Amino acid sequence: MNQLASRIVFLDYMRIFAFASVLIGHKFYKSLMAALSDPNIHITFKTLGEWLAPLCLGGAAGVVVFFLTSGYIITHVLRSEKPGEFLIKRFFRIYPLYVTAIIIETAVNYYIGGAPVPPASTLIPRFLLLGDYFGVPPALSGVEWTLRIEVAFYVFMAIASKAGLIQHPRYLPLLYLAASAALCIAPNFPSAPGLAYGYFTLYAPFLFVGSLVYLFQMKMVDTRIAVAAGALFITTFLIEIPQLQPTWKNSN
């Protein structure tokens, strides 16, 4: 009972939604769309599928919810953990599982798919979650880009905590606005065409929105500033996405 009380339970439901959106969007979206055009399926199931489809297209809605949830959680956690402790815990939570997934993917591609084992110049940046900085082909069907943003956010928030901004968060919204403005002004990263084009510029600010929701809920920042900053982040995303990822401009 105490363990349940210590959890922010509604975030578990958000995680479930995010996981389902990404899973369906990447693995079952074609099957879902085929079912919507099947004349033998009852209209009730089709209606449910039509409601579900926009939330699963490419897993995009799940990714946004994942970042919102993470921004909320990390802000909460850093109120009780020191920056060094926080970074060590996050390292061991992410990297062992991620490296194992890379090894399994490489082995499956080699033994089942017949693909050659990538050279060390490719594997090492992959293992370190630095692939885009070295221009190596993405791993795990490209979805590791979300972890890359997460790790950058962890470091960013640990520095903010070290500076005392988590415990005294009056200026955190201004820091988030400055960081988001820097992302907009700087060259879009990564700049290679394809799956990952400009994702850092576009999606990282949703982590700030999640943090602002937490600060707003805990009454730790001025309500008007938090709402205005969150609205600005979302509006900037909607303005930028037709230029950086035009395939998404007609999707909600």
Could you name the key traits of this structure?
252 residues, 3 domains, single chain, 12 helices, mainly alpha, 0% strand
Quick summary:
The protein is mainly α.
Strand/helix succession = HHHHHHHHHHHH
Q: What is the strand content?
A: under 5%
Average pLDDT reading: 85
Low-confidence parts: 1-5
Tell me the layout of helices and strands.
Blueprint: H1 2-6, H2 9-36, H3 43-56, H4 60-77, H5 83-111, H6 120-127, H7 131-134, H8 145-162, H9 172-185, H10 199-203, H11 205-217, H12 223-244
Helix pairs in contact: 2-3, 2-4, 4-8, 4-11, 5-8, 9-12, 11-12
Structural features, described:
Helices cover 71% and strands 0% of the residues. With 252 residues, the chain is mainly α. It has three domains: 1-70, no CATH class; 79-146, no CATH class; 168-252.
